[in-house]
Write a structure and sequence with these properties.
heterodimer; A: mainly alpha; MetI-like fold; 12 helices; about 0% strand; flat; disordered N terminus; B: mainly alpha; 13 helices
Chain lengths: ~325, ~280
C-alpha cells in the first residue's frame, strides 16, 4: 500500500487549485482539467466494470434465482440455494479438504522456503555455488500448473519412478496408487502443491534476508547469542512482515486452486480431493445446477474477500 | 583451529542440505527432460532409467509435425504477448492518473483495484460463460485476451503506480514549463525511464497469461483456439497415454518462461518480490 497511499501534491495538483477568477472560460478549463485523470482511467474502468463488476452482480443475481441459464423464466427463490449448499454434506467435505490442502501447503511452503532461503544466504558457501543451487531451487516455479500436473501424474503412476524408489528403499512394501486411492490422494495433491509453490516464498524471503543489516547479527554475537537465539531474535522478527503478507496471499491463492486438482484427481476418488473450486465447477458445468453453483461461487468470493481484508490490513500495518 | 574445524563442518552440513534440496526440486524436472527423449515404450521400463536407453527426438518431431499442436503454441504466444502489451499500455495510463493526479473517489478506486486481485476466478467463471457469449467473444482471441487482462491489470496498475511515485515530480513539471501536456510528460519522460518497472510487470503478466488454464478451458471450444496448458491436458485425454509427447510438450511449454528467467533474473526476483511484498 506504500504505493498507493502516498500524499499526492504535484504537477497537476487538481486537489488544490489556485483561486481562479470566475470567468466562464476559466471555469471550463478547470472542468476539462478535472476530467484529465478520468480520461487516463477510462480503459481500466471500462474493463473492470464490464468484466468484473457486472459478472459479480450477475453471479449474485443467479444465486438468488431458480436454476438460471437452463430455464427460460427463472423465479426468484431467495436464499434457498445458500441453504441447500450450507446443509449439503459434500460442501462441507470440500471445505474440510480445502482447509487441509491450503493449511498444510502454506505451512510447508513457508518452512521449505525459509530453509532454502537461509541455506542460500549463508556465508559458508561461495557465491557461484549458491547461484547454481538457487537456479535449481527456482525450477518448479517455471512450470505452469498443467505441466506440473502431468509431470507428477507420470512420477506417481503405480509403476512409476516414485513407487520404484520407495519400494527399492523398502519404505513401502507394495506399489501405491497415490492419486487414485482415497487414503493417499489428498496427501499426494497437497505434496504436489507444496513442490510447486515454495519458490515464491524462497525468493521473497531471500530478498528479505539480504535486507537485514549484518551489524544486527554482529552485535548479537558480541552479546554471546548462539545461532538459534540469533534466528529467533533477529531473523524471524525482521522477516515477519514479509512472512505474514506472503502467507495470506498464498492462503488466498491456494483456496482458489482449481487447475492442479482438476488435472490430477478431478476431485476424486470418492470426493476425497474435492475442493471448493472443483465442487463449484462441477455443480455448474457437469450438473448444470447454475443457481446452486452461483451460491457456492458467492460463498467462495466472500471467503476470499475476508482474507483479502486481512491482507490489506497487514499491508497497512507495515507502512 | 577449533573455529576452522567448526566452519568446515558447518560448510559440509550446508552442502549436504543443499544437495538434498536440489534433489527434491530438480529430480522431477530432470525426469521430465529425460522422459521427453525416450520412446513411449521405455517410459515405464523396469528398473527406471534416468538416461534414456534409446534416446530419440521422436516425441519432439511428433509435436512439431502436427499442425494442431504447433497451433497450441502459436496461440499461447500470441495471446500472452497481446495480454502483456495491452496490460502495460492500459496500466501505464491508469497508474499515471493515480500517481500524479488528485481526484474524487481516488481512495475508493485504490481499494477496488487492490481487492479485485482477490476475486476468485471460479466466481467469475459462471457469469463469464454467458457474458462472453453475449459479447460474441466465445472461442475467440479477444475473449481470452480481455479476460486475462482483468487478472493482470490490478497488479500491473499497483506496481506501476508505485514505480511512478518513486520518480521525482520535477521531471514532468519541466515538460509543463516547456508548454507540454500531461500526455507528453507521460510518454516522453516517465515511460522511457520506467523501463525496469515495465519489464518486471511485463514478465509477471506474460507468466499469468501463459499459465492460465480455467478460462482457456471454458471459453474456447475448437482445437485451433486452444492454448498450451489445454493442449497438454488434451494429450492426457487420448486413448493411449503418449507420456513422452506430454513431456516434450511440457519442456517446450516452459521454454519462454525459462528464457525470461535466465535473461531477466534480476527483474524477475526483484519484481515479483516487490509485488508480493510491497504493494
Amino acid at each position: 500500500m506504500s504505493t498507493t497511499s502516498l500524499p499526492v501534491t504535484g504537477a497537476d495538483s487538481l486537489g488544490s487549485p489556485e483561486p481562479r477568477s470566475g470567468k466562464p472560460a476559466a471555469r471550463l478549463a478547470d472542468a476539462r482539467r478535472a476530467l484529465v485523470p478520468y480520461g487516463y482511467l477510462t480503459p481500466t474502468m471500462v474493463l473492470l466494470v464490464v468484466l468484473m463488476v457486472i459478472p459479480i452482480v450477475m453471479v449474485i443475481g443467479y444465486s438468488l434465482m431458480d436454476n438460471v441459464i437452463m430455464k427460460k423464466n427463472p423465479q426468484f427463490v431467495g436464499f434457498k440455494h445458500y441453504i441447500d449448499i450450507l446443509t449439503s454434506e459434500s460442501f462441507w467435505t470440500a471445505v474440510t479438504n480445502t482447509l487441509f490442502f491450503t493449511g498444510v501447503s502454506v505451512i510447508a511452503h513457508l518452512l521449505i522456503g525459509l530453509a532454502f532461503a537461509m541455506m542460500l544466504n549463508t556465508g559458508l558457501i561461495g557465491t557461484r555455488t549458491k547461484a547454481i543451487f538457487r537456479t535449481i531451487y527456482v525450477l518448479p516455479w517455471l512450470f505452469t500448473v498443467a505441466i506440473i500436473a502431468v509431470l507428477w501424474r507420470l512420477l506417481l503412476e503405480p509403476n512409476g519412478v516414485v513407487n520404484f524408489l520407495l519400494t527399492a528403499s523398502h519404505l513401502t512394501g507394495t506399489e501405491v496408487e497415490w492419486l487414485s486411492s482415497p487414503e493417499t490422494a489428498l496427501f499426494a495433491v497437497t505434496f504436489i502443491n507444496i513442490w510447486a509453490g515454495y519458490p515464491f516464498y524462497m525468493t521473497s524471503l531471500l530478498a528479505g534476508l539480504q535486507g537485514i543489516p549484518a551489524d544486527y547479527y554482529e552485535a548479537a554475537q558480541v552479546d554471546g547469542a548462539n545461532a538459534w537465539q540469533r534466528f529467533t531474535a533477529i531473523t524471524i522478527p525482521q522477516l515477519k512482515p514479509i512472512i505474514i503478507s506472503m502467507a495470506l496471499l498464498d492462503f488466498i491463492w491456494t483456496t482458489q486452486q482449481f487447475a492442479l486438482i482438476w488435472m490430477t484427481t478431478g476431485g476424486g476418488p470418492l470426493g476425497t480431493t474435492e475442493m471448493l473450486s472443483t465442487f463449484t465447477y462441477k455443480l455448474a458445468f457437469s450438473k448444470y445446477q447454475f443457481g446452486t453453483a452461483s451460491a457456492s461461487a458467492v460463498i467462495v468470493l466472500v471467503i476470499s474477500m475476508v482474507l483479502a481484508f486481512f491482507y490489506v490490513r497487514a499491508q497497512k500495518a507495515r507502512d | 583451529m577449533d573455529r576452522k574445524l567448526r566452519r568446515l563442518l558447518g560448510k559440509i552440513a550446508v552442502l549436504i542440505a543443499l544437495v538434498v534440496g536440489a534433489l527434491f526440486a530438480g529430480l522431477p524436472v530432470l525426469w521430465m527432460l529425460s522422459s521427453s527423449f525416450k520412446l513411449n515404450t521405455d517410459i515405464f521400463a523396469y528398473p527406471p532409467q534416468l538416461i534414456p536407453p534409446n534416446p530419440t527426438l521422436e516425441a519432439y518431431t511428433a509435436i512439431f509435425t502436427d499442425p494442431v499442436k504447433v497451433r497450441f503454441f502459436l496461440n499461447s504466444y500470441f495471446i500472452s504477448l497481446s495480454v502483456t502489451v495491452l496490460t502495460l499500455l492500459v496500466a501505464v495510463l491508469a497508474a499515471y492518473a493515480l500517481s500524479r493526479f488528485e481526484f474524487p473517489f481516488k481512495r475508493v478506486l485504490n481499494v477496488v483495484i487492490i481487492s479485485v486481485q482477490a476475486v476468485p476466478p471460479i466466481t467469475l467463471l459462471i457469469p463469464y460463460f454467458g457474458l462472453i457469449m453475449f459479447l460474441g467473444l466465445y472461442n475467440t482471441y479477444p475473449g481470452l485476451i480481455l479476460t486475462y487482462m482483468v487478472f493482470t491489470l490490478p497488479y500491473a496498475i499497483i506496481m506501476m503506480t508505485g514505480y511512478f511515485n518513486t520518480l521525482p515530480r520535477e521531471l514532468d513539471e519541466a515538460v509543463k514549463v516547456d508548454g507540454g501536456s500531461s500526455w507528453t510528460a507521460l510518454w516522453r519522460v516517465l515511460v522511457p525511464i520506467s523501463v525496469p518497472g515495465l519489464v518486471s510487470v511485463g514478465i509477471y503478466t506474460f507468466m499469468i497469461a501463459w499459465n492460465e488454464y480455467l478460462f482457456a478451458l471454458t471459453l474456447t471450444k475448437t482445437p485451433e483456439m486452444r492454448t498450451v496448458p489445454i493442449g497438454i491436458q488434451l494429450l492426457m485425454g487420448q486413448h493411449s497415454y503418449e507420456w513422452n509427447q506430454m513431456m516434450s510438450m511440457s519442456i517446450l511449454g516452459c521454454i519462454p518462461i525459462l528464457l525470461l528467467f535466465l535473461f531477466f533474473q534480476r527483474y524477475f526476483i526483484g519484481g515479483m518480490t516487490a509485488g508480493a511484498v510491497k504493494n
